[in-house]
Specification:
The complex is a heterotrimer of chains A (320), B (652) and C (152). With 320 residues, chain A is of the alpha/beta class. In chain A, 29% of the residues lie in helices and 14% in strands. Chain A is built from nine helices and eight strands. In chain C, strand 1, helix 1 and strand 2 form a beta-alpha-beta unit. The longest helix of chain C has 19 residues. The chains are: A alpha/beta (320), B alpha/beta (652), C alpha/beta (152). Chains in contact: A-B, A-C, B-C.
């Protein structure tokens, strides 16, 4: 992996003179997760990191940098968000340089912190072979990387970044992982409707309405104009009630229907760990069944809710 | 905002099952309602005066009328509030008649429901804004689609009114079905003698551009400003050079080409002028029959043509015409009787359609007006006419009456007797439908003076017998079986929608019924309008019609267009979408779903923003549903208005 | 005022102006008796129906939501109902994930002339909702209560 990192740094160094900024990852404060790095001078390049702690999807920064020549380092899943942004013409392909990588899975810092029982108070952490060695106030421990991966990695459909201008390292298949944890969607399906409704009431009761899910979502392109906080239109009111929070989650899911690539940023960003990608997954499943469409694969395609067919093959309408 | 609510009794129509006094009382509790009353007939003169008085007395800013459906009186009350000095869009209706009093039996439930409907109307009205209709200029040209008698009348009336007219006809010549007829009922005057001069008028009128052998390819735009693409199909003859001399047809070796104009009862040549009175009198080549176009060798017509007009390499051409209104006069087609097995299913050469018989009667037809059997060319003696072939028959999906068959059958029996005094006509009929000036008298003449034998009943079988035909039927008046031997059987085939009518309707965005006939705007009050502004109907495309009715509709449609064009500008409906520049992020989702191309992406201070072309926007609101941040809102159906209605009905 | 306690359930209908609203009018003109639960909100076109209106109605306590527009190909605006069909089909999969019985929501097409069909739709849908009963309520109480709770 070391040489892949060096190759990445070399590529960035070479491209930097023609670019205004390159977005990559640098070491984070706690050693469990790397943080975004905005490279504008060559000296920044030394800070670049590339290992399973590069969990954050950097694509969300791109629309805000429109008009600049931007380089971005991307994993397979990150690149699918880039495809979506290109499809919606919110970024310009010719202004963009993608440094693509093959990803072996990205770590979930919350999960690791829970496994190591150390909270986020980590003195140091380093990756060695297939393990993450952590030193915290509670002592040292080692966690198998495979056990600490993000839930989305167990459903990875493409580990190589595409689109990509420079591919760093070798292409490869998604990591083969066993023991995929049950998704919330699976759990919900085992419940009665009433239980599901209660489940969401309880979950949403914990929501603190910080909108981190929205800020992290690379497709929440409305950002400051989000309809969840406006009065014109006034979709959601400010009452501290699970109803309004659930309304916002339904809104996020429906607004990203046919666009969401399940990059998982919403759940990764949620400070209270709510399973808020569940509704989006359910919609994606339906969209795949109805329209045989998956988001993030082709920037030339129109998302299914922005087109139609006169005869919809898979829609069975009720006969009254 | 001060809102006034008027709850109409509509006599006992509403008050019979809704406690209108209680509804008015409940309305007073709704936000910003300062005045509420019940009224006997809100739409009546005193009812409207009451609204105006209340607006002035209570300084109302908006009015809710709870009465019938807005489809009935919304326009009426908008004018009322306007007379009271309010903006006409500061008005909402609650439909408590069609949706409440007429369908619910429980008075308590009805009253409660009516009050809720008033509540949502109030909540919507509170969020209405004053709107002013914009204006746009109109292109005072009109397109008439279809050059039958209805289209001809419409085109001539428009042209006489000073409009530029584009007349588009699918066939090589205008004239339509009427040009194929020999005589017309009930006057028995010569069809081409009355139609011919009108066709010539079309050709000679400087205001009329005629495209025959042409079809409408696509229609864009809206009332006042349509862009219509017309496909001018290749005639393989340069019509600017063709003089209509007919030398080409005389020399054409493909003499066994099926003759469409003569209903396939005779043969013609691959290059031909369909009939002597054709307008334009130009030759065209039937590509399927032409030796040069199918096999690559011949060229007899090239040698024969003194004008050098033949062009085998000619291709279809698309022309775009800008017009402000369209009159659709695409007529009808005849029912294909071959699906009736009992009439031989098309196997017997002497079982023919009424239109084929018409061609046999015509002096310019394939037999030069001599009635001859198609099988052996002999004159028939006994002729059986069968009515309602493809009319009033549910079993074949044609439950409607074609209207004119009774009359033309009577005419054909009269003409038969004139041509062949020794002949005997028999008519099998279901009912005689002859409501028209002089129509029933005409039927009587056929029976009494011309001796046509009318038999009330259906025919169950036609069987060949010794070179003749045995027609087995029933006489329901006598209650017995009938068997008649005849030489010729004429089927009074019914009318059905013209081929391609639904496809054209899709292009024009007008609606059509299950049979493909176009829907008028209102069955009583808008007989020639459609629900698409600027598109009018004339003739049988709207439903089967005889000649006088088609001509009347052609004239009526023309007068509608002249009325529309009497203004220089049209008012646009202000209930259209608009974009909040501040909220728009320029993602163009709205643009991608707009069915009318009414949204363009513009640059505003270096940022991409959506912008609505107000005159093109039709107010469907598809854009508003597509915009995640709610930056584009349809006036009077904004997100907040609909949400307010939802909140009013479901207050948690 | 709200629905009649014990007699009615809260059923919201979103109808397009051109076809289904007219169909409901036609049913009225024909005096086709129907259950009284349904409240109709008129929209220009089913294309105007943001699926979130339906979600909002359910979260606000609607027991059933019915959407009705022009038959495919008959849309007054040519394509609004085609877009609506896709949006509403997608919505259909969201409701059960949220714990809302999918049978509480239906969409259909009724033309302005189909008064009889409209009556059938209203009757069947109302029966269906009565079969399901009232929608489960939030245990957290109403928003108003939540507001008052915070105020205290």
């Amino acid at each position: 992996m070391g040489s892949q990192l060096e190759d990445l740094k070399t590529a960035i160094r070479q491209a930097l003179p023609d670019l205004d900024v390159v977005i990559a990852w640098a070491a984070g404060p706690d050693g469990l997760a790397h943080t975004p790095l905005f490279i504008t001078s060559e000296s920044d390049v030394d800070l670049v990191q590339w290992d399973p702690r590069c969990s954050q999807n950097l694509a969300g920064y791109l629309p805000g940098l429109r008009g600049k020549k931007v380089g971005i380092v991307a994993k397979g899943c990150d690149a699918r968000s880039i495809t979506e942004l290109l499809q919606e013409k919110l970024i310009d392909r010719e202004q963009l340089t993608v440094f693509g990588l093959h990803c072996q899975g990205a770590l979930d810092p919350e999960k690791i912190a829970a496994m190591a029982d150390c909270g986020r108070y980590v003195r140091s952490a380093e990756i060695n072979g297939g393990e993450l060695k952590i030193v915290s106030s509670k002592g040292a421990c080692a966690i198998s990387l495979e056990n600490g991966l993000l839930a989305k990695c167990f459903r990875c459909t493409g580990a190589d970044a595409q689109p990509c201008d420079q591919f760093i390292g070798e292409h490869g298949a998604p990591p083969v992982l066993k023991d995929a944890p049950a998704t919330t969607l699976d759990r919900l399906e085992a419940m009665s409707m009433e239980e599901r409704f209660q489940f969401w009431e309880e979950q949403m009761g914990q929501c603190i309405r910080c909108y981190a899910c929205r800020s992290a979502c690379p497709l929440c392109v409305c950002q400051d104009h989000c309809a969840a906080q406006s009065r014109e239109p006034h979709w959601v009111d400010q009452t501290d009630h699970p109803r309004e929070k659930l309304m916002f989650q339904a809104m996020h899911a429906l607004h990203t229907a046919g666009r969401c690539t399940e990059c998982g940023e919403c759940e990764r960003a949620c400070p209270v760990g709510l399973p808020i990608m569940t509704m989006k997954q359910a919609l994606n499943r339906q969209i795949k069944a109805l329209f045989d469409y998956e988001a993030g694969l082709d920037s030339e395609k129109t998302p299914p809710l922005f087109q139609f067919r006169e005869n919809e093959e898979h829609i069975k309408e009720r006969k009254w | 905002m001060n809102i006034g609510v008027f709850v109409c009794h509509c006599g006992s129509n509403i008050a019979g099952t809704v406690d209108t006094v209680a509804v008015a009382k409940a309305a007073l509790a709704y936000p910003e309602v300062v005045f509420a009353t019940d009224t006997m007939y809100a739409c009546s003169e005193p009812g409207q005066a009451g609204i105006i008085e209340a607006v002035q007395k209570y300084e109302l800013d908006g009015v809710v009328v709870a009465s019938c459906t807005p489809r009935m009186h919304e326009a009426t009350f908008r004018r009322t509030v306007e007379r009271a000095g309010l903006n006409r869009y500061m008005f909402e209706m609650a439909n408590i008649r069609e949706h409440v009093s007429w369908i619910g039996k429980d008075k308590d439930a009805n009253t409660n429901k009516a009050a809720e409907l008033v509540h949502i109307a109030v909540e919507k009205l509170r969020r209405n804004t004053e709107l002013t209709a914009g204006e746009f200029t109109i292109n005072k040209r009109v397109m008439v689609i279809g050059g039958g008698v209805a289209g001809i009348q419409a085109a001539l009336d428009c042209a006489d009114g000073g409009l530029e007219v584009v007349l588009v006809e699918r066939e090589p010549s205008i004239g339509g079905k009427m040009s194929k007829l020999d005589k017309t009922f009930p006057t028995v005057d010569c069809s081409s003698c009355i139609l011919g001069p009108r066709m010539v008028d079309i050709a000679q009128n400087p205001n009329i551009t005629l495209y025959t052998l042409s079809e409408v390819e696509s229609v864009d735009g809206f009332v006042g400003n349509f862009d219509v693409k017309v496909r001018r199909k290749a005639a393989y003859v340069d019509w600017t050079l063709c003089t209509g001399c007919g030398e080409c047809a005389a020399k054409c070796p493909s003499k066994k080409t099926p003759d469409r104009f003569n209903e396939f009862i005779g043969k013609t040549t691959a290059i031909n002028i369909p009939f002597p009175q054709a307008i334009p009198k130009k030759a065209s080549i039937n590509a399927a029959a032409c030796l040069m176009l199918t096999k690559g060798k011949c060229g007899a017509c090239v040698k024969a043509c003194p004008a050098g007009a033949i062009q085998f390499k000619q291709e279809d051409e698309i022309v775009t015409e800008q017009v402000g209104a369209v009159i659709v006069a695409t007529g009808y087609d005849l029912f294909d009787f071959t699906q009736y097995g009992e009439y031989g299913g098309g196997r017997y050469p002497d079982v023919i359609t009424s239109m084929q018989y018409e061609r046999l009667l015509s002096a310019s037809g394939p037999t030069e007006g001599h009635i001859k059997r198609p099988s052996d060319g002999k004159e028939p003696k006994d002729i059986v006419f069968i009515q309602c072939v493809g009319s009033r028959d549910k079993s074949i999906g044609r439950p409607y009456c074609s209207g004119f068959c009774c009359m033309y059958t009577a005419k054909q029996t009269i003409l038969t007797k004139d041509h062949l005094p020794e002949s005997q006509s028999y008519v099998f009929y279901m009912d005689i439908r002859s409501p028209g000036k002089g129509y029933d008298e005409f039927i009587r003449r056929a029976m009494e003076e011309y001796g046509a034998r009318y038999i009330r009943g259906r025919v169950s079988a036609i069987q060949p017998k010794n070179g003749r035909y045995l027609i087995k039927g029933v006489n329901t008046l006598m209650g017995d079986q009938v068997e008649i031997e005849a030489d010729l059987v004429v089927l009074a085939v019914g009318a059905e929608a013209a081929k391609g009518a639904p496809q054209l309707a899709e292009k024009l965005r007008i609606s059509y019924d299950t049979y493909g006939f176009y829907m008028e705007g209102h069955p009583k009050l808008k007989p020639v309008e459609t629900n698409t502004a600027g598109i009018y109907l004339a003739g049988s495309c709207q439903g089967p019609k005889d000649i006088p009715s088609s001509v009347a509709q052609g004239g009526a449609a023309a007068s509608k267009v002249l009325g529309l064009f009497s203004k220089d500008k049209l008012a646009s409906d202000p209930q259209v979408s608009s974009v909040s520049l501040q909220r728009c992020i320029g993602c163009a989702k709205c643009q991608s779903v707009c069915p009318f191309g009414a949204i363009e992406m513009t640059q505003f201070r270096g940022m991409t923003k959506a912008s609505v072309i107000a005159t093109v926007c039709q107010g469907c609101g598809n854009c508003t549903s597509a915009c995640p941040q709610g930056a584009i809102q349809l006036s009077h159906f904004t997100d907040n208005q609909i949400l307010a209605e939802v909140h009013a009905l479901c207050p948690y | 005022m709200s629905v009649l306690e014990g007699k009615e359930l809260r059923i919201i209908g979103f109808l397009c102006n051109w076809c289904s609203y007219g169909g409901a009018d036609t049913a009225g003109v024909g005096r086709f008796t129907q259950p009284t639960d349904l409240r109709i909100i008129k929209l220009p076109c089913t294309g105007r129906i943001n699926p979130l209106f339906v979600v909002r109605a359910f979260l606000n306590g609607a027991d059933g939501v019915l959407v009705s527009g022009c038959h495919p190909r008959d849309c007054h605006y040519t394509a609004g109902n085609f877009y609506a069909r896709r949006r509403l089909e997608v919505l259909r999969s969201l409701l059960p994930v949220m714990g809302i019985e999918p049978a509480r929501f239906e969409y259909t097409w009724v033309s302005a002339s189909e008064g009889q069909r409209w009556r059938t739709v209203v009757q069947k849908f109302t029966e269906q909702i009565h079969g399901l009963g009232p929608i489960p309520a939030f245990k957290s109480g109403t928003c108003l209560e939540a507001c008052l709770g915070t105020a205290i």
